[in-house]
């Protein structure tokens, strides 16, 4: 049975989940879903490691959503939620070989490999336009 803290955090996080899923991001909530996606998805994908952190995640989610309006964009948009779906997030991070765990963060991936990675340090204390430009430049290069 879920304790009171876990239930509170789930309720807190739901609007943050909804912000991405209503924009078309698919949630991957288990390691099996992550593996299935990363081994079978064709074409580039944006992966958002979502988090509750307001200072960075409050910039990451809107930037990720807006990036999907770029003329060139990934074929897929998926998300895992750090601190909520721990096992799925840990499995996704295994695919981010060579990159330190960071949440929030974003990766452009294809065929299970990272093409471009945006860690928390490149989100926090940056303007939304800078984050959006970082994403769209990667899309223009790889998509």
UniProtKB/TrEMBL annotation:
Q: Write down the Gene3D superfamilies for this protein, in alphabetical order.
A: 6.10.250.2150, Glutaredoxin (3.40.30.10)
Entry's Pfam families? Disulph_isomer
**NCBIfam families, per this entry?**
YphP_YqiW
- Entry similarity comment: Belongs to the bacilliredoxin family.
Name the record gives this protein: BrxA/BrxB family bacilliredoxin
Organism, by scientific name, is Pontibacillus yanchengensis
